[in-house]
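During the second year of the project, the team shifted from modelling isolated chains to modelling whole assemblies. The rationale, set out in the original proposal, was that interfaces cannot be judged from single-chain predictions alone. As a representative example for this report, we include one of the complexes processed in the last quarter. Its constituent sequences, exactly as entered into the pipeline, are reproduced here:
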Amino acid sequence: MKELIQQLLEQAVTTLKSQQILPEDLAPRIQVDRTKDKAHGDLATNLALMTAKPAGKNPRELAQLICDNLPESTLVEKTEIAGPGFINFYLNNAWLSEQLDAMSRDAKSNVKLADAPQTIVVDYSAPNVAKEMHVGHLRSTIIGDAVVRTLEFLGHKVVRANHIGDWGTQFGMLIANLEEVEKQGTDAGSIELSDLEAFYREAKQRYDSDEEFAVRARNYVVKLQGGDEYCNTMWRKLVDITLSHNQAVYNRLNVSLQMSDAMGESQYNAMLPEIVADLEKQGLAVEDNGAKVVFLDEYKNKDGDPMGVIVQKKDGGFLYTTTDIACAKYRYQQLGADRVLYFIDSRQHQHLMQAWSIVRKAGYVPEEVPLEHHAFGMMLGKDGRPFKTRSGGTVKLVDLLNEAEERAQQIVAEKSRDLNEQEQQQAAKAIAMGAVKYADLSKNRTTDYIFDWDNMLAFNGNTAPYLQYAYTRIQSILRRADIDVSSLTQTIELEHDAEIALGQKLIQFSDTVHGVANKGMPHMMCNYLYELAGAFMSFYEACPILKNASEQQQQSRLRLAALTAQVITQGLSLLGIETLERM
RNA sequence: GCACCCGUAGCUCAGCUGGAUAGAGCGUCGCCCUCCGGAGGCGAAGGUCACAGGUUCGACUCCUGUCGGGUGCGCCA
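Output from the structure prediction step:
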């Protein structure tokens, strides 16, 4: 919608240039905004204000010239010049009605697909091997998955990259301990991940107390890194146990990651020596105290000298900076990424900036391929302190999801008495997962954020249950109408203000999907859907659909209602949230 | 010490590429059920956008500084 107005304005600019009213070399960034106040029309541009100075003209006078030179268009009802020189556009209702008609007949609600589909790598979730997923993995997993769904919807090729923590010195003791367990006759495949947590502690304890065990563990680290087949097999078992457990969590959360999307740190090991050698060859890495270090002028250490980033330890080992350099290189060169998005917590920001700074200097990824860090903070409890169990431990994701379902079940049992038990279970599950996910998705803070059960499970405000409820309410009306709305040919008539407002909100869906894709920010979709639901509720109050309405009005309003439901369910599905027919 | 992120209503959060009178929900107070789902709607009160300068026709938004909070800074990941 904005684009169409922009095109009209561009043509006007071209015309004015040819008339020497605007300088030939002027290339203004044409900005079209939705107005906050209806008195200012539906859309507005500040074009005349921006170009007044270079054109040497009074802004209002210039605005008039722009309006006079706008091409004829069916979508604009009229234009007005307001304030210091804004041009306000009033949309034509017949045009709006046609747009809504087209939306309701299109499987993707007339969302404009990407003109040039890209290959986009999205790095998200990233749990660790031999550890259960905990609340710290929630945000990355959920936000990343929503962005992935949105990008795919627009036609991009998305590579889901689950950068699991599957490498490090701790694997020596884990392998040694797995050996002990297998000696006692337990098959690795039968180990549950919850046992694996205990297993991890057991390994650590043995490592600390048993010198012979520790020696063996250290030996295994060396052998594993050297590609030893036995150690590799044992390592693989640990990875597989973890992946299959995590898969259950992803499935339950309706996260689209599969086991085959795991692209762990270990995958880049083979690249590391050549990266360091190349950095040295390029003169970027130098030896310092036995280690290989890249000095970056843009980062200073405590003495004010360029900060050194170690890419290889003096014992020959590699650190995660080198892995992240290799990883970015791989994603560009091997996966053919046009864009890479990282959903990783904000504590790693500086580290990523350093790694990418080296990546750019070494020429591994060209500047035109964006590497984007989408950061977020820690999860805090309602009291503003880190979100922990009563005993102060880390909250496991499984426990969090269980609690969400328990809470949702209580609410459903109380409020959805007309559903049978199975329907109640299903509703509770959808509400619980929706609430948890939406609570994360709807926040844009890069800083710490507050996790509050009462807020997220509320049926009012910007929450998943509110949107799910709005959807079921519409479904209820459509059921009651008892006609196939998709077969209606009645045009959508926008008479009442509330109908126009709803219609205008509906056609913003396409812009919203693109906003989420371009910025990697799903909260824009949340805000939009909340506003849409609000616009529908106002319409619903003001415009009777089934009663006190003419045949024509009834059909038109049913179509509007059905389209609203279509957009809500589609929008929520892009966020990975389910809707229900009844709740 | 240096760097990064943040500071918007009592609380939780929006505020797009700088645009017109800074918006929601909760909580507080009021109104609306002979009405298609009241799990709803309408309204009121509540703001020095941390503070001070600067740029601009115009700043919550950009720049500089100060204060406050969080996080990270050479051989873990």
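The mean pLDDT of chain A is 91. Residues 2-91 of chain A form a domain with the Gyrase A; domain 2 fold (CATH 3.30.1360.70).
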